Amino acid sequence: MEDDAPVIYGLEFQARALTAQTAETDAIRFLVGTQSLKFDNQIHIIDFDDENNMINKSVLLHDAGEIWHISGSPAEKAVLTTCYSKTSESRVLTCAAVWRMPPEWESGSHESPDDSSNNPQTLELLCHLDNTTHGSVACVLWEPMGDGKRVISLAENHVLLWDLQESSTKATISSSATLEGKGQLKFTAGKWSPHHNSTQLATANDTAIRGWDLRSMSQIYCIESAHGQLVRDLDFNPNKQYYLASCGDDCKVKFWDVRHINEPVKCLEEHSHCLQCHMILQKSF
Amino acid sequence: MSSATTPPDSDPTGRRRVHSMLQLYYGLNEEGKVVEQAESLDPCDINGPHFDPEVYLNKLRKECSLGELMDHESCTVKQIRSLDSDMQTLVYENYNKFISATDTIRKMKNDFKKMEDEMDCLSANMAAITEFSAHISGTLQDQHAQITKLSGVHTLLRKLQFLFELPARLNKCLELQAYAQAVSAHRRARCVLQQYSHMPSFRGIQDDCHVIMEQLAQQLRQKFRDGGSSAKDLSECVELLLQLDEPAEELCDKFLSHAQSRLAADLQGLEAELKDSPVTDTGDILEFIDRGCNEFVSNLCLVIASYQELFINQMANGKLHVFVDTLAARYFSLVERRIQEEKGVGDNSLLVRALDRFHRRLQAISKLLPGSAVPSQGTEIVVRAARERIKQYLSALQTFYHDSLTDVRQALAAPRGATSKDATPSLPELLTSLSNFILNQLKSVLASVHLFTAKDITFSNKPYFKGEFCSQGVREGLVVSFIKFICQSSRQYCESAGDRGGSTPPALLLLLSRLCLDYETSTISYILTLTDEQFLVQHHTPVTPVTALCAEAREAAQKLLNHYVKVQGLIISQMLRKSVETRDWVNTIEPRNVRAVMKRVVEDTTSIDVQVGLLYEEGVRKAHSSDSSKRTFSVYSSSRPQIRYAPSYTPSAPMDTSLLSNINKLFSERIDIFSPVEFNKVSVLTGIIKISLKTFLECVRLRTFGRYGLQQIQVDCHYLQMYLWRFVSDENLVHFLLDEIVGSAAHRCLDPSPMEQSVIEVICERG
């Protein structure tokens, strides 16, 4: 890869949501959700061909609203969730839904880009993760390496665990937890730990990182003031079960051992810009 | 000559004069020798021996008148007449004397004749006496020899008597405990007894003596064994036993073991003192060392001296060395324990004096026992104590530093609660007082440590105290370590406390930063020069150069200042973030005022500006227009020079705006938000404002705005524009960031119809 020229892919809209297609094991494929207030938003499926060092793309229409978060099902390639903002009655609310890509996208992926952008296919709505009582959804997390039946949504200060039934067309809340505290607490990011039988969750709100046990739906640890400013995102080390990485607006990347939360294991301070949206695609630690 | 008429006997002076003149005439002086009279060479001198009557007369005739001549003649005649009478008198006198002398001589002649006869008679008598004497001595010869022999026998008998009486005498001595007398008596007799031991009578005496001496030796040993006696008694005892041919080695061992038990008692006394009294009132160390010196060391010296006096020829010194070493080791361990208890750093002179005394007394041992390791071990203890002392001073300095920082913290915290205006002016005062405190403390510590190298201290001329102590100990171990500690602890303020709730007040960070910077510029070199001068440090070993320390201090200052910027930026950022996040930007009313939070931001920035200005210089800023606050918003002018703002968001040209702004970004300077700041006010303020506005921008990008929401952001940004430009080095930076904010808000707006610039200005002017 180092020898090849960098591959650049341009979007016509701003975008904040990016995910790997988790269930896809052969191809290197990413999903990008765009943000536009005025136009119909899209989901770009970007296929990277590392042998020829080139990119193929397909575009799906996501007309529900601008996409703030996107996440692919670990079991079914075609299933994904998005968090999107919906403006209704001069109110902006971020909702979450489970979608299925139309089956034709893969066959049409080799069409010319003009065709796909001119006549994009629409996602098929499987179900809403109904959240009218809980407020805006920050992100939706699939159970890692699960069967695609369980998702968690972080809405305002609630952690909601959903069971998807009937081929993901019906979602019911199986359990939930609420973060109580002073002021308006709001989750900004979260990750479902792939370790411990997928029973742990880490969330970020403001400058704190919290760990949750999904069996009891209770907090198990809390790193107060993990960063000087807002924690933007976090992720688990896929190989070491207690290690966690986080990044924040203070331009730092910190690595934590959740068993010793008083001090970070390591702190990188190389960036001089705020770390924006990012995905930690760590393969090894 | 005038007195010539007076009778000669009546006037002794006149007579003597006459006499002398006669002598003169005859050429005699008092000793009767003829002498040349120097003054009498004149032929006209009538009294001189070279008198020439012819010349004299001629002279008179020539020089004198007739009258004078007449006078002279009469005078001369008168003189001649008196002289003649004098002469007659003398001749008469002498004649009488001659007559009487002749009579005397004749009488003597008769007497001598009579005496000659008597002398002859005497010599005859003497001859007879001599004859008789020879006769007597001849007859007495035999008897004399006999008497000599008898006297020889007498002395022998007396000796024998001594021998026979010896047992009794020894017994008596034994009773009286006059051991020394007994031993000397026995020694005198021993050889004789030995020689004549084949004779039964002597043999008996010898046996008796043996028994008695055995008893005596027993008693001596007993006494020796009891050990209660003083060192002097003991050594006397040993001396006697040695004279009694006791085995030296055994004695030597015993002697040492006794000495050991006594010295051990001394040590136990010391130990008890060390143990019994609690640490607080141990009495000062000087007393302890004094006691150790007076009791133990002087006793030890006594033992060494007497040992050497007694055994030096018989025994190798090895035993003594071992003995001294073991005891000294115990003593040293006690001393070291005592020194370790000396933790108070208040008065160093006591410790130094104690160590000095300790060291001085050990030198006595080195004189008594050359080649002993004890003095060098003692020196080592002193060296260790000095090292330990330096460590204690370092930790005391560190504690002091922490304490003064706590004081500063309190001073920073206290007035802030009451009146915010009073708090800020004291910042430079706090800085100077803090740095003075530290410097004074360091100086006093240096003065205390300096005592170790004072001239009158015996160990100060040891190589350690001349070299390593000064360079490695004081300079590196104390001064350099302390400076490093200051930098280190300053850095810790940035690392640990910073992210976690910001427990350090920002003003303290600023203060410490300035302190470190001051250290870099002057204080470090001053302190090190002071140290080098005081301790005449000769750098045999490599020492930390001043530049390295300065670099470290500068790094710490930089870190602190960066951290200060971050903390202050965070505080303002949080305000902005909350203000953006908690508001419903879609359903907001038409803006009538600048939001209160913006005013607060400006106020806070101003107070930070004042705070930083107290400690740091103004710094340079890029040239700017004369009145930047009046500048129209660049959203409409600079970044989109010609077209109006609103039309660019018409659906027909969705790509234009983003493309334009992206191209714009490419050409504008890249902004490093958390870049290091310089040591001046403008740079610090620029850093803080950058962080704040960047956060503002990021928050805006996450929100969705209604029409009035956008307009409110416009108003807010214009207000910030009006006030923030003056704080930063490059006002374009503020413009750029504010443009970005308004641009992003417009981009995130559902109904992007901006407010008229004039209306914005009116709102902002109004307040």
UniProtKB/TrEMBL annotation, chain A:
SUPFAM superfamilies named in the record: WD40 repeat-like
Record Pfam families: Beta-prop_EIPR1 (PF23609)
Domain EIPR1-like beta-propeller: 7-276
PROSITE patterns: WD_REPEATS_1 (PS00678), WD_REPEATS_2 (PS50082), WD_REPEATS_REGION (PS50294)
Key word Repeat present: yes
Domain of life: Eukaryota
WD repeats: 224-259
BP GO annotations: protein ubiquitination
Keyword vocabulary terms for this entry: Repeat, WD repeat
Family: Belongs to the WD repeat EIPR1 family.
Name of the protein this chain belongs to: Protein TSSC1
UniProtKB/TrEMBL annotation, chain B:
Source species, domain of life: Eukaryota
Keyword Nucleus among record annotations: no
Alphabetic keyword roster: Coiled coil, Endosome, Golgi apparatus, Lipid transport, Protein transport, Transport
Record keyword Protein transport present: yes
GO process terms (BP): endocytic recycling; Golgi organization; Golgi vesicle transport; lipid transport; lysosomal transport; protein transport; retrograde transport, endosome to Golgi
Coiled coil, from the record: none
Matches recorded under InterPro entries: Cullin_repeat-like_dom_sf, Vps51
Major location (coarse): Golgi
Localization per Swiss-Prot or TrEMBL: Golgi apparatus, trans-Golgi network; Recycling endosome
Entry's Gene Ontology cellular component terms: cytosol; EARP complex; GARP complex; membrane
Pfam families xrefs: VPS51_Exo84_N
PANTHER family, sorted: VACUOLAR PROTEIN SORTING-ASSOCIATED PROTEIN 51 HOMOLOG
UniProt subunit comment: Component of the Golgi-associated retrograde protein (GARP) complex. Component of the endosome-associated retrograde protein (EARP) complex.
Protein family membership: Belongs to the VPS51 family.
Entry function: Involved in retrograde transport from early and late endosomes to the late Golgi. The GARP complex is required for the maintenance of protein retrieval from endosomes to the TGN, acid hydrolase sorting, lysosome function, endosomal cholesterol traffic and autophagy. Acts as component of the EARP complex that is involved in endocytic recycling.
Annotated protein name in UniProt: Vacuolar protein sorting-associated protein 51 homolog
Organism encoding this protein: Sinocyclocheilus rhinocerous
